[in-house]
Every structure is written in structure tokens, then in C-alpha cells.
Amino acid sequence: MIQSTKDGELVIIKTGTPIDGNVLMWTTFYYCKGIVIDGGCPNTAEEAYKFVKDLGDIDAVVLTHHHEDHIGLAQILSNEGFDVYISKHSIDILRNPPDIPEYRRIVWGQPKPINALPLEEELNIKGIDIKVYKAPGHSKDHVVFQIDDYIFIGDLIGSLKPKIAFYSDNYSQILESVENVVLTLDFEKAYGGHIITTKDEIPLFIEYIKYLKNRIRELREDGHDTNEIIDLLWDRISEKVLMMEAVSGGEWHRRYLVETLL
Ligand SMILES: [Zn+2]
């Protein structure tokens, strides 16, 4: 399923897999002046391709990172001969995608092989300048793009107040990338895979992560182990978080927030 809106010259495209008619998880990608930024999930690749072809020329695809909810459309575009760019660290992963767990195959779809080119620090594609900034933390290969005043942050920030984390998340590194990379750039809005936020709102995220970091370290100094810290930090935890921890077999869990901020 696809939904789209516009923000100036930017087309914001949300895709997700309907299950019994409802989309449980959406992922967003973008089309800006002939450049496709990320690409939704494999389950919606065909639908996304038809949609983007009608928007205008496609000059290149740039990927913030290799996770399956960001690369769907790139599978088709690389087969059709379009240039797909990703961090050099992920070229092999895209070429030989590992089998993903069943819950991710249902929600997003199993990735197929993609031939990609390595990102440089700056790309110029048909007169469009794309600045590329390394921003590790959500994954090792993660980058942030800037095209004019638009900033594309992938999954570096998934929520301003995260209450659960993916096993590849390293929140100390995320904090560093947000403070030392994203906030040094000139922009108003930041466009991500699961959030659109503003430069003014991002300090709320930093404040929250620093609060967690201090609290986690205090609790550890008081002798609490990770499970006790989790219980003390989040005494009223939502059903959704508990469900994600169970359904994902622990790939999503609060412990990654705790362990990577210690
Ligand atoms: Zn991701």
C-alpha cells in the first residue's frame, strides 16, 4: 500500500504491507528532483516503481543504509539499469542479502540482490548536488544526505523518545552522530524513514537520550543489572513495546538502549 504527500519539491512516499487490510508498520522514502532517497520495503517495490515512474525522470537512487525497509524500490531500479548508491560497507550485503527472520519477511519482505555503487562524500547527478555525511549508530553503514535545504536522516532518529531499540542500534553512537553531524547542518526539517522532525525538535531527542544515559549509569553504579535497570526505567511499558519484543524474538528490545548507553 502507498500513500503520498508533497512538501515543496519533495514527494514523501509512505509504503507498508497490508495485513487483513491494515498496515501495521509504514516506512517512508522520498523523491526529490529526479533522485530517489531510500525505497520502501521489498513487499511494495512494484507498486512503488509504478508510482515513482509517474513522478518524472529517475536519475539515481541513494540509500541511507541497507535495512530491508529502505531498499525495496532499489531492487527493481538496479535491475532496470539505474544507478543505486550506498555506503561502500554495504555493497556486499546488498549483493548477497542474508535471509531475514519471518516476522520481518511478513512486515517488509525478503530483500533480493542489488548491484550498488559506493557513495562518495559528495555526488553530483545531472546538476543536483547530494552531500553525504557518515552518521553511524542505527547501523554501521548509515549516512545522512543533504539536497539543498532537505536533510534525509534514514533511521538515525526513529522517534524523539525511543522506548525500544533494534539490535544494531548503538545509542551512544547515535547521540554522537546527531549532535556532531546532523545538528551542524543547515536545515529546517529532517526527513526520516519513520519520522519527519525539525531542527528545533531534535534537542528534545538529545535531552531524552542524555537523561536515559545518566539514569542508566546511576542505576548500574547502584549495582543493578540490565533487567533491573529496564524495570526501573520503564515501570509502565506499553503493550506495543512488549509485543514487539516478543514477536521479534528479541531483535527489538529495551535492553539495546540500556546496554549501548552504559
Ligand atoms: Zn533501519
Give an overview in words.
This protein is an alpha+beta fold. The protein has a single domain (2-261), classed as Metallo-beta-lactamase, Chain A, CATH 3.60.15. Helix content is 31%, strand content 25%. It has nine helices and 17 strands. The chain has helices at residues 45-53, 72-79, 91-95, 102-107, 171-180, 202-221, 226-233, 239-247, 255-261, and strands spanning 2-7, 10-15, 18-19, 22-23, 27-32, 35-37, 60-62, 84-86, 117-118, 122-125, 128-134, 143-147, 150-154, 165-166, 189-192, 196-198, 252-253. The protein has a seven-stranded mixed sheet. Strands 10-11-12-13-15-16 form a six-stranded mixed sheet, with no helix packed on it. A hairpin with a 2-residue loop joins strand 12 (143-147) and strand 13. The radius of gyration is 18 Å and the shape is globular. The termini are far apart. Zinc ion is lined by residues 65, 67, 138, 155.
Task: Give the arrangement of secondary structure elements.
Layout: E1 2-7, E2 10-15, E3 18-19, E4 22-23, E5 27-32, E6 35-37, H1 45-53, E7 60-62, H2 72-79, E8 84-86, H3 91-95, H4 102-107, E9 117-118, E10 122-125, E11 128-134, E12 143-147, E13 150-154, E14 165-166, H5 171-180, E15 189-192, E16 196-198, H6 202-221, H7 226-233, H8 239-247, E17 252-253, H9 255-261
What molecules are bound to this protein?
zinc ion
Percentage of residues assigned to helices:
25-40%
SSE succession: EEEEEEHEHEHHEEEEEEHEEHHHEH
Distance between the termini: 40 Å
**Biggest beta-sheet profile:** 7 strands, mixed
pLDDT averaged over residues: 97
Count of folded domains: 1
CA gyration radius, whole angstroms: 18 Å
Total count of strands: 17
Would you identify the CATH H-level superfamily? Ribonuclease Z/Hydroxyacylglutathione hydrolase-like
User: In percent, how much strand structure appears in the residues?
Assistant: 15-25%
Specify the overall morphology: globular
User: How is the CATH topology named?
Assistant: Metallo-beta-lactamase, Chain A
